[in-house]
Structures are given as structure tokens and as C-alpha cells.
Amino acid sequence: MTAKTLLSIVEIGGYPDMTPIYTSAGFRIISSNNQRKALKLFRDEKPDVIVSEFIFQPDYRDRYCNVGTLTSQFPIINPEVKLILLYEEEDAPALSRFTRDFAPYHAALPHPVDRNQLAEILDAMS
Q: 115: which residues sit within 8 A by CB, 6+ positions away?
């Protein structure tokens, strides 16, 4: 049986490495530190799960947040992909608007990320 693939996108970081949780849940991990590389990996690898920071970007005219372009490709590349977003508490209203207007997510966890909760979510997917 082939392991499911998880794409980890860490652009800012500042929190513990979640790799042990991903591997413990049985995922093969690919990773990126920016959205352009992440989009290419998504196209090439077609991961089952994406764990990404949600970064609200009100300063940009052409995008709402860091994952907008990536999520717009879900229906084309892999409509079954599960998205887990890690977000700052102050961005919760923006996250709600984003998911209402653009892309739903499977789960969203505020910082500091509850590692046990993340593990439970991933275990249910593997």
C-alpha cells in the first residue's frame, strides 16, 4: 500500500516542526517554503493533504491571502485534496471570509497549534 502524501507549506514558521506528527500518521511528506513552489509540487505530486499557514494579506490588490492561488487549482488538479490551515487568532475573521467566498478547508487550527489535535485530524485521514 502506498503512503498518502502530505504537502507542508511553511512560509513564516515560528512554531515547532510538525514533521514527526505527519510521519507518525503515515504520510510521505513533501514541503515548500513559498506558494509558487507549493503550486508546482501540488501539480506534480497531487498530494492527499495540504497543511499550510493561512496568511491574511490585506495590503495586496491581487490576492486575499497566501493560499488563494493554490486553492483555486484544487478543482482542476485534485478536488479530493484535504486542506488544513494554521492561522493566527487575529486572522480568524479573514479566514471565515476566505472559506465562505473562495475555498473550504478540512480543518483550521489557531496558533499555537495543538499538536494532539493535529495528530488526531491526520490519523483520521490516513
A: 16, 18, 21
- Residue 20: which domain range? 5-125
State if pTM tops 0.85.
Answer: yes
Question: Which residues are registered as beta bridge partners of 49?
Answer: 6, 82
Instruction: Please list the pLDDT of the chain residue by residue as tens digits (126 residues).
Output: 578 999 999 999 989 999 999 999 999 999 999 999 999 999 999 999 999 999 987 776 666 788 888 998 998 899 999 999 999 999 999 999 888 877 779 999 999 999 999 999 999 987
- φ/ψ region of 67 (left if φ > 0, alpha if ψ in -120 to 50, else beta) reads alpha
Residue type for 34, please? N
Q: Residue 76's domain is classified under what CATH number?
A: 3.40.50.2300
17 exposure class (CB count in 10 Å sphere: 0-12, 13-18, 19+): exposed
